[in-house]
């Protein structure tokens, strides 16, 4: 998994690529939970390059969303890949996230 | 494959989260080999990955050098995958089937999703915690969908 955070705009964009699983999700969790309170308006997680995501990845996104709500920030999934949408649908969590295409 | 044929593959890996990607890769190849439709492979890989992750997180409490064993078998009618460990037996209620509903955002709790995903993907799930140590979860998927992912909780 590769992570890049870009905080130049009002929205902090975190771009993640590769597999999010039990091994890699703790790193993503750290980056997301650190970025949320510092973001000007909100955080966008770009998930277009995700090849696999498990329930620990889902839990990480859920934690990010909760943290964003607590801090009054936006939390958006950007261009989620098929792998991401599939697990969110299986978990019945596809409708709780704000999603946009780019 | 004739009706009586059953193909087996046994894998033993250590409980290191870095190896989960290797297990997923092997599973993809095996599922293709035994002829599971491409659109069903990814969710089977996900559910088995969740079972392995549960061994690491719960039975072994994150220890990375303990054994996790996978037994993969396929017949003309079904695929069966069991995942076992020699760690702390999990309370049986942890693996019970619970309906999966879309929660309200304020009700969201991270975690606890893995078992639900396993139940959504497989047609039959049997969980057998050992009396003193170890756990085994056996997951069966019928080739002609008896329900599986399409069935409603």
Describe this structure in words.
The complex is a heterodimer of chains A (102) and B (153). With 102 residues, chain A is an alpha/beta fold. Chain A has a single domain, classed as STAS domain (Transcription Regulator spoIIAA). Chain A is built from 3 helices and 5 strands; from the N terminus they run E-E-H-E-H-E-H-E. Chain A has a 5-stranded mixed β-sheet with strand order 1-2-3-4-5, with helices on both faces. The longest helix of chain A has 17 residues, at 55-71. Chain A starts with a strand and ends with a strand. With 153 residues, chain B is α+β, with helices and mostly antiparallel strands. The termini of chain B are far apart. Chain B has helices at residues 20-33, 38-59, 113-121; strands spanning 7-14, 67-74, 78-85, 124-129, 135-142. Helix content of chain B is 29%, strand content 25%. In chain B, helix 2 (38-59) packs antiparallel against helix 3 (113-121). Chain B has one domain (7-148): 2-Layer Sandwich (Heat Shock Protein 90). The A-B interface holds A 19, 21-23, 52, 54-56, 58-60, 62-63, 65-66, 69, 83, 86-87, 90-93, 95-96 and B 17-18, 20-21, 24, 42-43, 46, 49-50, 53, 56-57, 100-103, 105, 108-111, 113-114, 116-117, 120-121, 149.
Summarize the structure.
The complex is a heterodimer of chains A (102) and B (153). Chain A has helices at 25-38, 55-71, 82-90; strands spanning 2-6, 11-20, 42-53, 74-78, 98-100.
Main pleated-sheet profile of chain B: 5 strands, antiparallel
**CATH superfamily name of chain B?**
Histidine kinase-like ATPase, C-terminal domain
CATH superfamily of chain A: STAS domain
Q: Tell me, rounded to a whole number, the average pLDDT of chain A.
A: 95
SS-based structural class of chain A? alpha/beta
User: What percentage of residues of chain B falls in helices of 4 or more residues?
Assistant: 25-40%
Task: Give the overall form of chain A.
Answer: globular
Which CATH architecture of chain B? 2-Layer Sandwich
The H-and-E topology of chain A, N to C, reads as EEHEHEHE
